[in-house]
Here is the input.
Amino acid sequence: MKKKITTFGLMILLTLSYSITAFAAVKTMPDGQKFDPVYYAEQNEDVVKAVGKTEEALYKHYVDYGKAEGRLPYKDAPKPETKKSDNTTTVTKSTDTKAATTNNTSQKVYITKTGKCYHNAGCSSLKKSKIETTLDEAKKKGLTACKNCH
Ligand SMILES: [Zn+2]
Here is the structure.
């Protein structure tokens, strides 16, 4: 019984708001979503053919399918979020890379068998032997930065 009353109340609300804003485009649906049935019908003739032109049917289509299909609920609606999340991933990745390069402990340096210094990859001191290690490891061994390449 309670449910019936609620539905009836909602229908009155919808009918009222529909008659007031019949041609005024965007409206806020009971669930908080902004929706413009006139715009939605104009942009999606296939939907109108399938479900008809009533606001209820159009909005139901948007919630059930249109949203996932990337259809816009009203004219100036933000574009579907699929690309946005991709960008977020890229940004996160580049931030990670930055953190890794500025993180000295994992920075790559090169040492020689006998030398007391660690070097950058292109240093001329590495002609005889070139052992890849990390800055952290080199420092642990008591090696210091080569003056030629640092
Ligand atoms: Zn060097």
Remarks:
- Residues 82-102 form the longest helix (21 residues).
- The chain is about 50% helix and 10% strand.
- The CA atoms of residues 1 and 7 lie 10 Å apart.
